[in-house]
Amino acid sequence: LPGLHIFAITLALEVSVGKTNTVMALNNSNVLLPCVFTTCIGFQDLVFSWYFNTTELIYQGKIKNKATEPTPIWHNPRVEFVGSTTKKDNNISIVLNGVEFSDAGKYTCHVKNPKERNAQHNATIVLTVVHKMVKTDNTVTLIIVGVVGGLIGLLILFMLIKRVVLFIIKKTQDGKKECLVSSSGNDNTENGLAGSKAEQKAPPKA
Asked: What global pTM score does this model have?
């Protein structure tokens, strides 16, 4: 049946942390760990989790539907949820407060959507923690290095935020294109690149 065929194509849960999967943070600072998810058919009772180095759960939340904001199930006291799902984008980003050197490692954003036959997808971001400036005898050099380092840090943060925003905008546009292609009754092969793109992005079957 054509209806079933279309439904199968639209099962495309995707999770992303942006174009670059690395974030740099200064010791004792707060760092944003970005994550968004897309799905063509919507979601119901969706569960999302953040893991540190694959196994350690640091945040878990549940979203009843598009009209409600996520509710936390459990979270590490240092982790703060900063996303929103009632707005345009399904943003499930978190902020890690008071970053320490031991926090360096992999952070995985995992989503499970019961509405898509419990489809699951995840994306990983790598956090690097930068050491504070070591005091030296040459005070002038230290000040110059300190100022330049600060400016570079601000520039990296600005570029990261800009990239995330641009990525989310692009992602939203891409998602709409794929949903439109999938929902039309046409065979995807006629749509060339859009069809193959949708196929490539389909999550691997467990």
From this structure: 0.61
